[in-house]
Amino acid sequence: MRLSQYFLPTLRDNPSEAQIVSHRLMLRAGMIRQSSAGIYSWLPLGFRVLQKVEQIVREEQDRAGAQELLMPTIQPAELWKESGRYDDYGKEMLRITDRHEREMLFGPTNEELITEIFRASVKTYRDLPKNLYHIQWKFRDEVRPRFGVMRGREFLMKDNYSFDVDAAGARHSYNKMFLAYLRTFARMGLKAIPMRADTGPIGGDLSHEFQILADTGESAVYVDKNFLDVDLLNINVDYDDREAVQKAVDGFTSFYAATDEKHDTAQGEKLGDRLVSARGIEVGHIFYFGTKYSAPLKANVAGPNGETITVEMGSYGIGVSRLVGAIIEASHDASGIIWPDSVAPFDIGLVNLRSGDAKCDAAANDLYAKLQKAGKAVLYDDRGDSAGAKFATMDLIGLPWQAVIGPRGVAAGKVEIKRRATGEKLELATDDAVAKLIG
Ligand code: 5CA
């Protein structure tokens, strides 16, 4: 993509409304634009990152045996009356009346709707277990939307729902999601810490939140320092092996980690100076709530002896749009964003220091073509701006690699490449630079 043609409305100055670094950088890098409080448009650069994050979430869900579907954003109020949550949910729920005076709502979550889909078609224990997910926009009329996409009113969530015949099966479904979550966040370069948590309006008695440590986090959290050294990138448990999965989960939960509401001061004190008290950003939350929805909504199946079994359920959420902000909170410096390779909007930023100069243009066009041919996503700054402005833009938008073409390098047949994360620079012959950049 040539930057001269790309829609990248960057800002030079810090927008005064943004209180935290990820919000500031998302606005300055032209990733999002607010349309009303807590509601954002995703501009091309931001949308590419959102899609990358979504795809990692999708791959890890699929790997763990969940199946993707897509439910609507607008739901009928009747279902929520059946579960008893219509009144409980209060003002956070956006209630809508259609032209026929039917009560509808913009879904804040989907337990009711998925349970209705399930009960309409699954009638026997033989069809279980099932785990269904979607990635869909939610609306919660938060009292205090803030921090950009971190606490929005409209936000993108991956939510899935497991259905099992018994508690042991449901526990296995929960455990698989637990491990899938650790893998998901690790692939985005994040260390997400599973913490025992409150269940709030979703309900149930077993629940973990996945928290990223960051000073700007909304939750106070406590964690055993030793957890921070645990390798989360190489979790390779056979998801069908119930015992192995349980053992792995037991291993991760053996470290003390709790949110404020669940913090046990006595247990914390036992850790001595191993206890880290910090702030956290909740990027995921999983729940096992048994028959809380399946009982009132009558999601029953026939058992082996014709008996009626009310299915055991769990639900599992990931804040997909929030993650984009959380990744920036975890990975930035004074000059801008530093994208982990796995979620970067483009792999390489190509800077032509003297656009319009025949030799520089030829060298830049050649490198651009070669990198694209090798399957790399390249953002090519072919504009007539000053070198300083071009470097500042590249640092701000945080692509993992920068490749710089200038008159001096062209004369010597060289390209300078820079790794954004470390600042390390190498001057290489064009073919060596291509080899390095395509990895
Ligand atoms: N039904 C359950 C699980 S599917 C549920 O709704 N859980 S939740 O309320 O914890 O939300 C799941 C995730 O969505 C949270 O962990 C958080 O990362 C994200 N999230 C929740 N509220 C917001 C919000 N207002 N803005 C951005 N992300 C949010």
Task: Describe the protein.
- The protein has 439 residues and is an alpha+beta fold.
- It has 2 domains: 21-337, Bira Bifunctional Protein, Domain 2 (BirA Bifunctional Protein, domain 2, 2-Layer Sandwich); 346-438, 3-Layer(aba) Sandwich (Rossmann fold).
- The chain is built from 13 helices and 23 strands.
- Strands 3, 7, 8, 9, 10, 11, 12, 13 and 16 form a 9-stranded mixed beta sheet that branches. Strands 20-19-21-22-23 form a 5-stranded mixed beta sheet, with helices on both faces.
- Strand 1 (32-36) and strand 2 (39-42) form a beta hairpin.
- Helix 2 crosses helix 9.
- The two termini are 20 Å apart.
- The mean pLDDT is 96.
- Bound molecules: 5'-O-(N-(L-cysteinyl)-sulfamoyl)adenosine.
Radius of gyration: 24 Å
Inertia-based shape: globular
Q: How would you sum up the major sheet?
A: 9 strands, mixed
Low-confidence stretches: none
SSE-based structural type:
alpha+beta
CATH superfamily of the largest domain: Bira Bifunctional Protein, Domain 2
**Count of distinct structural domains:** 2
Mean pLDDT: 96
For this structure, the CATH topology of the largest domain is BirA Bifunctional Protein, domain 2
Tell how many strands the DSSP assignment holds.
23
Q: If classified by CATH, what would the architecture of the largest domain be?
A: 2-Layer Sandwich
Bound molecules: 5'-O-(N-(L-cysteinyl)-sulfamoyl)adenosine
Summarize the structure.
The strands form six sheets. Strands 3, 7, 8, 9, 10, 11, 12, 13 and 16 form a nine-stranded mixed sheet that branches. This protein has a five-stranded mixed sheet with strand order 20-19-21-22-23, with helices on both faces. A three-stranded antiparallel sheet has the order 4-6-5. It starts with 20 loop residues before the first helix and ends with a helix.
